[in-house]
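COMPLEX REQUEST
Ligand: adenosine-5'-diphosphate
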Amino acid sequence: MPAVLRVALPVPLPTLFDYLPPAAGEARPGCRVLVPFGRGKQIGVVVAVEAETTLGGNRLKQVIRLLDDTPLLDAELMQTLAWAADYWLGAPGEAYANALPLALREAKPLPALGEEYWSLSVAGQSAHDAGSRRGGSKALLALLASGPMRAQELSERLPGWRAAARRLADTGLLERSERPPLNATPPASLAPRLSDEQQQAVATVATSLGQYQPFLLDGVTGSGKTEVYLALIEQVLAQRRQALLLVPEIGLAPQTVRRLRERLGVAVEVLHSNLSEGDRARAWLRARNGSARVILGTRSAVFTPLPQAGLIIVDEEHDSAYKQQEGFRYHARDLALVRARALGVPVLLGSGTPSLESLANAEAGRYRSLHLRARPGAIRPPQVQIIDMRAQRLEHGMSPALLAAIGETVARGEQALVFRNRRGYAPVLLCHSCGWHADCPRCDRPLTVHAGRRQLRCHHCDYRSRMPDACPSCGAGDLKPQGQGTERLEEALTAQFPQVPVLRVDRETTRRRDAFEQLLATLRDDQPAILVGTQMLAKGHDLPNLTLVAIVGVDEGLHSVDFRAGERLAQLVVQVAGRAGRARKPGRVLLQTHQPEHPLLRSLLAQGYAAAARDLLAERRQIQLPPCSHQVLLRADAVQREHVDAFLADAHAALPPDYPVQIAGPMPAPMPLRAGRQRGQLLLEAASRQTLHAMLRSWQLALLALPSARRVRWSLDVDPIDLY
Ligand code: ADP
Ligand code: ZN
Ligand code: ZN
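STATUS: Structure written out below.
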């Protein structure tokens, strides 16, 4: 009897597909195979090899070709992916598609693993000396003038360099070569003497090397967490093991990359979204063959093979960027824990503002807590003060006290940061004669005024229209922008402080990946300046001359319908406030609000994040919300509301009767219309994860079979972090 191969294919169906083994070669689990599928071909991963099923082997098709002699995915990764697909209700093939770099999902030989280097030829050196080139070519020649450079490093330093490299190579100015990866280059920088707290954290984690144990390292930005990571990675490297460091966003971490490279003296693989597919595949394969010792990456790097794993670190573990919000909706932090367990290594979660999920796990004793309370080098923590906005004459949303504090700061030659989490000029355009306001026709939500481009834009679906000169409803010319966005604050501050540079940092001013760092680089450490921006300002490199943080308007977060809004607000306030007074100068934080008595703000300011988080967690426990209960959200959308309603009603009816889960809905989504599509949802909640998960797969299969499912777009989100 021939064996049957169970294969995961990149199609959105929650099943495996059976094939007969190929004519040549032994297809083992973890090997890729080329198979016939429908009218075409697909590349799949063998998940299991079984004796013939009762279905009858003669009806099965045969694998066209085996692509790997040895499994590309090892047993641990296979097991973790199967677990992840099951837990987050993904199709098995989708999980593999997330784990494998695109270039490895093609029927091509694996790329060669030598490092790709670029260098100047003699002619290139003269061209550089003569300064005969312009633009990207000139920049590339300048970068290479100091010596050969790895392609990956070029991608980080000069995005889009390949076009210039091709031009210059064609004219003989550049040379490409492949050399084996440089192994031990001596570290260029020395570690500082660790503080007692840092030493203790390192020692505690170090005693767990070689076994599974989660740790939660709680320390504000600047408290020295990265030094703890570095010391532990050094130990892991000394044991000839690999370390994986996850960060929420790479664009904001070039400093970390530099620090790792300079300190560790080994090649650091960086996996991020701007990498070319070839480079990504090579980095993944170098991790797989063990030549990559330290891997730094964003969410999807959690799927990197780690045959000699020693430690996994998740920095800023509370960050929502770790959750994939479409397709295969996994959470990289949670998956990091699953992998650490399977690999038998410690996992270190770091944050200045830990998520309530992780705090609950620490309280329950599942994680061991580590704290860094003191900031090395800082004089003292910033002073935080509330400004009551009620009954104040506001200048574009800013109170006299706030403006005075900014004035004093810049007069001292120091820098101030004004934080407002809304881009654009104003969130609403209102007619003062008749009360009309501009709404997005596709979302039913107010359009944001973008004054610089004289445009109205929808921040939900990106609909754009020209700003009208007169009211489309009554014809009056009395249209007034209501409220403030960063663009308006920039304008007001420029008018108020004409002698000081005002820098705006938001998605519009930093469209390019490195624009943010470049913008900050224009700041001189010894000069006054005012920074205005959104939450992008909460991160990024150290600003030693920044001594005032002014938080303008966070009140939206105090009465949002999302139960996580309070937690997010507390995290954001603490992260932004942490930008003040990081070096030798003491910092000051002003928080302007209409609700100075709000209990969350009170406890946050009086007692800090840990106390506020404890209160929030107690509240969640009382009303049985995550992490004290577990949720699954079924979302559906369609052009016609009836189709959404019909599907959700059928989905509701398909639930097992008298099952011990709470059901909320079917109901319209908090945003019932978006980008022209009607949206609805059904929320399931249970005290026990097992209870909830026990019925999910069969329910999902029932949903797939519903005729009404074909008239909507729908998805299941396990542990949703966003109820929109
Ligand atoms: P975090 O990762 O928590 O934001 P970092 O590790 O980046 O903190 O440390 C913040 C700053 O303090 C960095 O400039 C770092 O070099 C410095 N630093 C950290 N630990 C020490 C120490 N033990 N002695 C001196 N400087 C330190
Ligand atoms: Zn009007
Ligand atoms: Zn819209």
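REMARKS: The mean pLDDT is 88. The first strand starts at residue 4 and ends at 8.
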